[in-house]
Amino acid sequence: MQDMAKIGILYSTTGPYGALGRDGWAGAEFALHDWRAAGGEGVELVFFDAHADLSAYLEGARSLIRDHGCRSIIGTITSSARKEVIPLVEKHDGLLWYMCPYEGFEANENVIYVAGCPNQHLIPLLDHLVPRHGNRPYLLGANYVWGWEMNRLARELITKAGGEVLGERYLPLEETAVERIIADIAEKRPSFILNNLIGPSSYAFLAALQRLAERDPAFLPENCPVASCDLTECELSDIERGAAIGQLCALPYFDSLDTAVNRAFKARVQTWRPSITHISSIFASAYATVTLCIAAMKSCGSDDPVAIRREVLSRSWPTVLGDIVIDPATNHVALPFHLGRINPDGGFDVIASRPAIVADPYLTGERLRSAPSLRVVS
Length: 378
Known about the structure:
Pfam families: Peripla_BP_5 (PF13433)
Distance between the termini: 19 Å
CATH architecture of the largest domain: 3-Layer(aba) Sandwich
CATH superfamily of the largest domain: Response regulator
Low-confidence stretches: 369-378
Largest sheet: 7 strands, mixed
Organism: Pararhizobium capsulatum DSM 1112
InterPro entries: Leu_Ile_Val-bd, Peripla_BP_I
Radius of gyration: 20 Å
Strand order of the largest sheet: 7-6-8-9-10-14-15
Structural class: alpha/beta
Shape: globular
CATH topology of the largest domain: Rossmann fold
Protein name: Branched-chain amino acid transport system substrate-binding protein
Helix content: 25-40%
CATH class of the largest domain: Alpha Beta
Mean pLDDT: 95
Strand content: 15-25%
């Protein structure tokens, strides 16, 4: 490997999803800290903050590649930002490492998806909710590809199973006027609410729904839960105090997971930065992704994207998310499913789990039948 390999980190630490970007940034920093604490050297992280400006993501990716020589870029939060950056990464035959839950129906040889797609989060979530609460949900979504596609898929799955979607509404990322949606939900009385809102819109909705539940117990979390695939520990402090308690989220990692690997991970984080009281899925996924990228570089002795891609696809890798395998046909990681319930302490209690699920981004069923079996290396 060259004297100093550079990895680009591309997040937004301000704006409607700034909390996620800040935790992604911190997770990447901690991965480099862990690497150096173990005697590692020869790797540098180069950070670019896009400040939630879609055009700035392209500018940032260009600067990381052209000005800093980064051949791997880790980051972007929204699917809009990911899709903005991919053509440039393709042009330079680099690698984009994406580690946020997304809506699927994508696979690219220049992207490593350390991120859940619908068969890893949405479908198991619906499998849990429908038998317990009924098949007449209300769908909410951010007004861009994540919200559109997640709700489209949920609608198809619910209607094919004989259920009925009682309502479907969308809000811009920073819109917080949710009164009409609350009134509609109060009138239609759904079985549960699938929340694909982002940031302030989601926080305002949860607070308004709590006020509705205070007037009408039918909307308490135990009776009509709000379930998400994108709400993490780092956002809970931005929600009106107590408003989200009892609501649900499906993610591949929660701070409360009681495993030896996670206990050791949390202890190291606390020593590094004692102010971090809860580790989010975004932090853990960024940490795992940077760690994996560095390990692949070390193993193949190069920062060449072709060599790195070949290396990461060749074996199973131990991470804080579990021993992960990347499917060579889709470049997607197999991830566990955990369902968390928000507790009064600013975290999640895990109430259901499944072992690692092979990603099936196009929902063909083919990937599940041909899951690779690879050895684990340390």
